[in-house]
Design brief:
mainly beta; about 40% strand
């Protein structure tokens, strides 16, 4: 059994949503989270550490946490054209022991931050067995996954980044790269 991880997102999250029309852009830059705490909706195990880092879980098994920007970011213009966005962030996944990985996390675009039935472990706090693959989810996630999926998973590789639409099955998977 793979132990769950402790996750720390370091330094900054930059998300920029460009509008396809002449309307203004939505932009927010977090250079640490302590001073931006009021801009986030934290749920479950998510917390801001005293040094300003966002931690989504602790070292206990079967735990999850979420952090959502608390204002809507419109990604469709009036003509139903999808706007582009970009993001960059630095994170650390710390396994609970040296011989186990963690499951991972997702950067999620969702119509609501509330995902009350989402499960931990292979569901990454995003979905559950019943709603995985449901087109009514209206969820896009960039999955940072550290283990090869369970028997029903489409994961072809262990450590990977995947693009997920309404499902934990990645439409695109690429192996991760580590840099010292």
């Amino acid at each position: 059994m793979i132990a769950l991880f402790s996750l720390v997102i370091l330094l900054q999250i930059i998300v920029l949503a460009h509008r396809a029309t002449s309307e203004t852009n939505t932009e927010f830059i977090f250079q640490g989270f302590k001073v931006n705490q009021s801009k986030l909706q934290l749920e479950e195990d998510a917390t801001i550490t005293p040094n300003g880092l966002l931690r989504l879980t602790n070292r206990h098994s079967d735990r999850a946490g979420t952090a959502f920007y608390n204002k809507p970011v419109r990604l469709l213009d009036n003509n139903s054209t999808v706007r582009s966005f970009s993001t960059s962030f630095v994170f650390v996944i710390i396994p609970s022991s040296s011989n186990n990985g963690g499951f991972g996390f997702t950067f999620t675009l969702s119509p609501t931050p509330n995902r009350p039935d989402a499960e931990t472990a292979q569901y990454l706090g995003l979905l559950n067995e019943d709603d995985d693959g449901d087109p009514d989810n209206h969820v896009f996630a960039v999955e940072f996954d550290t283990v090869q999926g369970y028997k029903d998973s489409t994961d072809r590789i262990g450590n990977h980044i995947g693009l997920n639409f309404n499902s934990l099955s990645s439409h695109v998977q690429e192996p991760v790269a580590y840099y010292d």
